[in-house]
Specification:
five-stranded antiparallel β-sheet, 312 residues, alpha+beta, four-stranded parallel β-sheet
């Protein structure tokens, strides 16, 4: 099969997918910045050829008559699937256009993993938290606002010990714990001055570790991440990892969380609190697996390719 992978050329995950593909599949890297789309009613441009080696005639994409999407010299409709492995920064117009393009590809019958709507939901912490809550999943109490006055009210309501997160971001970047009222006021005023949305969650007392669940279709892989030097348990911040055999409760949390976001390929972060409850912190729709693959000694890239091929 032919896989288009939206990733940077130096991405470790791109190289891992290439390794796993071997000679069985073709993996082609594409850049979000090169996406373009041509719309021409009745032209019959929106076509998809058969699989690699197929001599069958091209067929019109469903609902895609006149739609063509390209990334540089490549026509995305010629691939069996498009895998999203990055979400680079850009202007509001660029980000919206990129998601629109992925959405149009899906509507035209192309397989996109993860779907545009899932990526949009996961990358937006407010929307992701709201979807998790609507699905009946336990998450930390959260307040999202735009003024420092509202943020101070939220700071008190959340117990005076909060985690401040950027609305968009991953790997623990920009996350700060604040338990001092004066520091909170200073931080919230600065965020409001820069036009930031202020995202606050109550700090959940825990034992210094969380659990990363990687969902690939119906399969779930799990590892524990522990950081004795930092309350943040991201591997990028020095956390150590160990194998976890997910029980029925963790399996259910993993599948329900991924389904709430609409991501068949998802990284679900679960925090066991000292109160005995399991809290879903976030769902990543472009999940990493480097540390998990090493910890579990599992070929995650091969599993991803097998799953995507099974969906075609």
């Amino acid at each position: 099969m032919r896989f288009a992978v939206l990733a940077s050329n130096d991405s470790w995950y791109l190289n891992d997918l290439r390794r796993a593909a071997g000679t069985q599949h073709e993996v082609t890297p594409l850049a979000f910045s090169q996406l373009s789309s041509q719309l021409d009613y009745g032209s019959g441009l929106g076509v998809r050829s058969g699989r690699v080696g197929s001599e069958s005639q091209p067929t019109l994409l469903d609902n895609g008559d006149g739609l063509r999407v390209r990334a540089g010299q490549f026509d995305l409709s010629r691939f069996d699937a498009v895998l999203v492995r990055t979400m680079p920064p850009g202007s509001l117009e660029q980000v919206v256009f990129r998601m629109d393009v992925l959405g149009r590809l899906e509507a035209a019958g192309c397989l996109v993993i993860n779907p545009a709507r899932a990526i949009e939901a996961a990358v937006d912490k407010y929307l992701a938290s709201a979807k998790l809550l609507a699905a009946g999943l336990r998450t930390p109490r959260t307040l999202v606002c735009q003024t420092f006055e509202d943020a101070m009210v939220g700071f008190a309501a959340l117990g005076g010990d909060v985690v401040v997160k950027p609305l968009f971001g991953s790997e623990g970047r920009g996350i700060t714990r604040i338990s001092d009222e004066a520091l909170a006021l200073r931080a919230f005023k600065m965020l409001a001055q820069f036009g930031s949305v202020i995202y606050l969650q109550e700090f959940i007392p825990h034992e210094g570790f969380d659990i990363r669940l990687l969902v690939i279709g119906q399969q779930v892989f799990a590892m524990r991440r522990r950081n004795p030097l930092d309350w943040r348990t991201n591997v990028s911040r020095g956390a150590t990892t160990e194998r976890v055999e997910p029980d029925d409760q963790l399996l259910e949390l993993a599948h329900r969380s991924a389904a709430a976001i609409g991501a068949p390929l998802a990284g679900v972060d679960v925090l066991p609190g000292r109160d005995g409850q399991l809290y879903v912190l976030e769902v990543n729709a472009v999940p990493g697996w480097k540390a998990l693959a090493q910890t579990l000694d599992v070929d995650v890239a091969a599993t991803v390719l097998e799953y995507v091929a099974s969906c075609h």
